[in-house]
Amino acid sequence: MEKRGIGREGINKKMKYSQKKSRKLIKRKGFNITLKKRNLGKDLGGLGIIARRNKKITEEEITKIKLELQNITINKIKLIKLVQINEKIYPNKVFTQKGILVRMGKGKGKIKNKGLYIIKKMICFELFPLSTEASLILNNKNKSILNSYFFKFLKKYNFLDLLIP
Fold this sequence. Notes:
Blueprint: E1 2-5, E2 13-16, H1 19-27, E3 47-51, E4 55-58, H2 59-70, E5 73-74, E6 77-78, H3 79-82, E7 83-87, E8 93-97, E9 110-118, E10 123-129, H4 132-138, H5 143-149, H6 151-156, E11 160-163
Antiparallel strand pairs: 1-2, 3-10, 3-11, 4-9, 5-6, 7-10, 8-9
């Protein structure tokens, strides 16, 4: 990742960011990146759920999202019976917090919960059909029909979106 900036040598000097600095920039809301398009099983009729914006997600939220995904009904059949849900996000960061009346210093606070930062356009879940019937439903090229199945889910979790290959 490069940035043009003003240095001692002049205006057009190229500056390279370290990996840590570039990750910090990526996590910020206004910073756009392009991720490689992954093959979501186009031949199988796979479907993806991606992040619409950058957000911090806790471990509890991830389990709630997965449970809600399993309970979505398509033509009076639960989604878990139609597709295999692959989770692509795992909690890898520990969030700590000090008490309200605790003074500064004396080390880090207690562990509050675990979670991770999702980045815009990051694939969070993959849905692969288990049968030909499910692949016909998910292969529908009309995005509005698929959005109608996932409407309540996408309205509740407005930071997620469908990725139709």
